[in-house]
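Section: Multi-chain targets

For targets with more than one molecule, the full set of components is provided together so that the structure can be written out for the assembly as a whole rather than chain by chain. Components appear in the order listed by the source. The example entry contains two components.
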Amino acid sequence: MSDENKAMTKSELIELVSSKQPHLAFKDVELSVKTLLEQMSEALSSGERIEIRGFGSFSLHHRPPRIGRNPKTGESVALPGKYVPHFKPGKELRERVNQSYVESLQKK
Amino acid sequence: MALTKAEIAERLYEEVGLNKREAKDLVEQFFEQLRIALEDGTQIKLSGFGNFDLRDKSQRPGRNPKTGQEIPISARRVVTFRPGQKLKTRVEAYAGTNEE
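Its structure, encoded as tokens over all components, is:
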């Protein structure tokens, strides 16, 4: 985790995007961001990859079935295999994030 | 097949009613604002989808796998994604046979 601990929420992001698109109604920007995130969730839920050039790609990673244990009873339970979302940052995102970090270290 | 910015823009055109130019700009702006925030050291929390976190890695010893020569891997900051519970549950249910 970075030491600054700043965070941005979905509603703050919507306000920011809206401020950059002043010709669009706020509710249209809000609906667009929600639609976009829903479409990304739908893609992953149906096993489809997402490739956003300059940002990164999302794919599914498979977790094989395993034997788990009920922590209360100690009993073994067979857990089925499952898929989990995985994000791989793209080149531009990696470089921009790292470059500004390295520059901030040099200023210290 | 993979979902791309072009398809996302197409859906905003169809469902939200933005014109094609506006839809394309909005998708571009959305990801650009995420990059700017992360570049600025800001974590992003998109409820229902997931969080983009930043991790600072200190310098560590490395090796050129070809030559075996020792070269330090410099301090760096990396982006990680932690899917939210809602997305995890939806994806877990996927039992298809498509590869990754």
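Chain B touches chain A through 63 residues (CB under 8 Å).
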